[in-house]
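Retro notes (design track)

What went well: tokenization of the new backbones is finally stable.
What didn't: we kept losing track of which sequence belonged to which structure.
Fix going forward: every design gets posted as structure first, then sequence, in one message. First example under the new rule, 287 residues:
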């Protein structure tokens, strides 16, 4: 028979033992949950998602928010294509996880205001390039007023080797959401009627536009924004006015412009303009 003191000690021992068991069980469950949340995506996971009928957008979102270990050898990429994985999803797989910034890119931050790109471990300052406005039609013989297209001419002042660059904006009082990134397409010529946003009839065209014929060929020779690239915007911790802009997918080799809304118009856009308007953007090439 237990005496009172022994009985109390027994109860204390039992309580401590049960607490330890509960603690171990909780730790195991937490560890299991952590392992589940840190599941590493593989090629088979992507194939399963495709076969389940998920959209490209949904699959790409999963890739961007997960750790991954994909086999991306040329032979495997061909097999992925054969089983129905789209080009967009494969591009996201090649780009890997983009929901975070690599340690090397996190450590690179500017100390002075400006616009920058991180290119293969280098912090490169972006310089502006003037936008060229081409008047296709001048109204009523008034020189310098009419309908125009715009774009960029000449070679980009900057070449980047990293197809997944991070852009950094360090500027006060900037509407960061009005920044856009687009690839560029070269436009050599247009015909006069393509500037005719007022819908002037062909028989009156020459009188309204100073002798210009309806089908006259007008030289453009400009690089114009074509496809906008989605950007993820992340504020830099403890740096007021500093943001990282990260392309959602790797950039293909070619020419690009980073610009504030309204500074340059997408290809196909015609607008009323005055000769000599001053606007500028950032102009660069991905090699």
């Amino acid at each position: 028979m237990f005496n009172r003191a022994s009985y109390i000690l027994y109860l204390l021992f039992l309580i401590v033992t049960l607490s330890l068991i509960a603690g171990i069980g909780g730790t195991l469950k937490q560890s299991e949950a952590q392992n589940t949340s840190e599941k590493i995506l593989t090629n088979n996971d992507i194939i399963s998602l495709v076969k389940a009928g998920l959209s490209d957008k949904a699959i790409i979102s999963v890739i961007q928010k997960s750790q991954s270990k994909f086999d991306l050898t040329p032979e495997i990429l061909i097999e992925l294509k054969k089983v129905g994985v789209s080009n967009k999803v494969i591009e996201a797989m090649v780009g890997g996880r983009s929901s975070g910034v690599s340690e090397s890119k996190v450590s690179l931050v500017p100390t002075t205001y400006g616009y920058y790109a991180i290119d293969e471990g280098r912090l490169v300052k972006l310089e502006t390039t003037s936008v060229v406005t081409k008047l296709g039609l001048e109204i009523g013989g008034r020189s310098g007023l009419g309908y125009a297209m715009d774009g960029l001419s000449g070679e980009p002042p900057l070449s980047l080797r990293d197809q997944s660059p991070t852009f950094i904006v360090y500027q006060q009082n900037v509407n960061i959401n009005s920044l856009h990134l687009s690839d560029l397409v070269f436009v050599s010529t247009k015909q006069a009627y393509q500037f005719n946003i007022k819908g002037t009839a062909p028989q009156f065209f020459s009188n309204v536009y100073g002798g210009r014929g309806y089908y006259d060929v007008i030289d453009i020779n400009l690089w114009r924004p074509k496809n906008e690239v989605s950007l993820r915007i992340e504020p830099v911790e403890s740096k007021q006015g500093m943001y990282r802009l990260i392309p959602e997918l790797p950039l293909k080799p070619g020419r690009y412009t980073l610009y504030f809304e309204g500074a340059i118009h997408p290809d196909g856009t015609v607008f009323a303009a005055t000769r000599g308007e001053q606007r500028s953007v950032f102009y660069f090439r991905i090699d």
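Added context from the reviewer: Confidence is low (pLDDT under 50) at residues 31-37.
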